[in-house]
């Protein structure tokens, strides 16, 4: 212990230097927006890469368990094939059993979950796709079972998703049968339970009714399943219903997700902005005109690139045909020579 104290006293100037260096860096990144943003972006990329590596190693170590689960699943599927064939026609006719097709204005970007929390108040999900893949904040995230959440922030290669399991999450939704609207929120507790608020008391609400997106925002199209009503209760003020909903998505086993994009969303927001504030009409129209020009330029660039690729393919094809035609006479000459030698 005395030797440690002597070492600290002997090198106290180094320790003072390190302490001052840490304090100066803390002031630098706390009170300078640019340095703070650079630190956050770099840290986000580093953390995302680390999560990706850890996720890959974890997936590899759990391959045996995954194979066992797949074998059990295959056995169950073989037992259920006959029943599924009998119910196929009914399932195809019942739209509540299927994820509806997305409208043509939406596109989908597939991604993988590389990190996730489900037991905190502000849970977040990290996926391995970012800005270079066309993902931006406020895009909806879904999977084959239903709605997952909304993109919160992005870097070049990674994105952070705010799932339904977040106290700050608020998704506009509706009851499929009665078509009454409400807001889906989450309170700390179970990872498969959420709540719908602001449903009027005169609504004809039933247990086991499907809760889905209502399409009032640009984030989700209408009709995407969220969950099913488990219990019907009253709000604290008694003016509306407070519904407990069992979510369709199993967040504890979530691996594959899809980010949906709406390419008409900026145009709609600008139009709504112009309607709310007519004084900004000129600026909004200028933005729309600029976006239209950019879309036209992008379309022309895509067409030119496609033409160049086609010309390059034709050039390569012509070269191959010329080489083939040039080599054909020589091959024929060698064959004739071989036949002549054989006859001799």
Task: Please give a structural write-up.
The chain is of the alpha+beta class. A hairpin with a 4-residue loop joins strand 4 and strand 5. It has three domains: 2-84, no CATH class; 99-263, Rod shape-determining protein MreC, domain 1 (Thrombin, subunit H, Beta Barrel), CATH 2.40.10.340; 264-311. The chain has helices spanning 2-10, 12-31, 33-61, 63-93, 265-276, 281-343, and strands spanning 106-116, 125-127, 140-143, 146-154, 159-163, 171-175, 181-185, 193-200, 210-213, 225-234, 240-247, 256-262. The strands form two sheets. It has a six-stranded antiparallel β-barrel with strand order 1-2-5-4-3-12. The longest helix has 63 residues, at 281-343. It has six helices and twelve strands. Mean pLDDT is 80; it is low at 91-98. Helix 2 crosses helix 3 (33-61) and helix 5 (265-276) packs antiparallel against helix 6.
Global Rg: 30 Å
Beta-strand content: 15-25%
Helix content: 40-55%
**H/E series:** HHHHEEEEEEEEEEEEHH
For the record, the count of structural domains works out to: 3
Count of helical stretches = 6
Widest β-sheet, arrangement of strands = 1-2-5-4-3-12
Number of strands: 12
pLDDT < 50 runs, ≥5 residues = 91-98
CATH architecture of the largest domain: Beta Barrel
Silhouette: extended
What is the CA–CA distance across the termini? 103 Å
């Amino acid at each position: 212990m005395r030797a440690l104290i002597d070492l600290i006293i002997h090198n106290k100037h180094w320790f003072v230097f390190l302490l001052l260096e840490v304090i100066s860096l803390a002031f630098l990144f706390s009170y300078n927006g640019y340095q703070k943003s650079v630190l956050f972006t770099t840290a986000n990329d580093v953390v995302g890469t680390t999560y990706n590596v850890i996720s890959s190693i974890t997936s590899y170590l759990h391959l045996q368990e995954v194979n066992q689960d797949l074998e059990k699943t295959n056995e169950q599927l073989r037992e259920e094939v006959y029943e599924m064939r009998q119910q196929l026609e009914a399932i195809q006719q019942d739209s509540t059993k299927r994820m509806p097709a997305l409208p043509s204005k939406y596109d989908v970007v597939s991604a993988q979950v590389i990190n996730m929390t489900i037991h905190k108040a502000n849970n977040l999900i990290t996926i391995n796709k970012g800005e270079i893949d066309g993902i931006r904040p406020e895009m909806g995230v879904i999977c084959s079972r239903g709605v997952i959440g909304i993109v919160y922030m992005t870097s070049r290669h990674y994105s952070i998703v705010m799932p339904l399991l977040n106290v700050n999450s608020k998704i506009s939704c509706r009851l499929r049968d009665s078509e009454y609207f409400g807001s889906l929120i989450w309170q700390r507790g179970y990872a498969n339970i959420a709540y719908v608020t602001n449903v009027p008391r005169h609504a004809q609400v039933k247990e086991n009714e499907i809760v889905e997106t209502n399409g009032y925002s640009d984030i989700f199209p209408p009709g995407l399943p969220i969950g099913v009503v488990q219990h019907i209760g009253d709000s604290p003020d008694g003016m509306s219903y407070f519904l407990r909903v069992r979510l369709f998505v199993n967040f504890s086993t979530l691996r594959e997700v899809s980010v949906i994009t709406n390419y008409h969303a900026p145009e709609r927001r600008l139009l709504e902005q112009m309607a709310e504030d007519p004084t900004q009409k000129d600026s909004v129209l200028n933005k729309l005109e600029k976006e239209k020009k950019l879309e036209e330029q992008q379309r022309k660039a895509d067409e030119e690139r496609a033409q160049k690729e086609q010309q390059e393919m034709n050039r390569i094809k012509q070269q191959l045909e010329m080489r083939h035609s040039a080599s054909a006479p020589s091959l024929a000459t060698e064959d004739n020579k071989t036949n002549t030698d054989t006859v001799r």
